């Protein structure tokens, strides 16, 4: 995952480490999970300098439960709670109040958690891949990862769970943005 930051730097998340590089490619931040016990699945650097990640155990057998972790700029854990995320790659959508949207592909839903890990709401959708909160409060969700003839689409859902808009695709849609 790569994320362009407002200051022009690039935040990069790989399976084993996080890096931030400046425009000249110099590493200005580097972090690896202590003792290498967990791998990064998803990550995002937030405007306040904290980092949101989803991690999973790096040793087999892999647990079905992963963890959402919020790190301070030095890598110290600020929060941790269990989530279920099977897919790797991509960013997390974290709101200014700390709420986070977690696509749970095996459970056919997107769950919104508050900053303490309490479920706030969920959106049922077949095989969600990514979820983004829009400026109008609605949620944009991509779905359909398997290559079987099942629905592959992007949907916009309001906070009550009502479908507002959808785009159906013939191939997998992994990311969508509304401008």
Task: Report on this structure.
Helix content is 0%, strand content 49%. With 179 residues, the protein is mostly beta strands. The strands form four sheets. It has a four-stranded antiparallel sheet with strand order 1-2-3-4, with no helix packed on it. The chain is globular and about 45 Å long. It starts with a strand and ends in a 10-residue tail after the last strand.
Question: Nutshell version of this structure?
Answer:
With 179 residues, the protein is mainly β. It contains no helices and 16 strands. The protein is 0% helix and 49% strand.
Q: How many strands in all?
A: 16
Residues in β-strands, percent: over 45%
Question: Structurally, how many domains make up the residues?
Answer: 1
The biggest beta sheet is recorded as: 4 strands, antiparallel
Element-by-element helix/strand order: EEEEEEEEEEEEEEEE
What is the count of helical runs?
Answer: 0
* Estimated helix fraction: under 10%
Task: Give me the CATH superfamily.
Answer: TolB, C-terminal domain
Q: Indicate the structural class.
A: mainly beta
In order across it, which strands form the biggest sheet?
1-2-3-4
The end-to-end distance, rounded to whole angstroms, is: 21 Å
Question: What is the averaged pLDDT score?
Answer: 89
- Report the CATH topology name: Neuraminidase
Shape: globular
Flag low-confidence runs: none
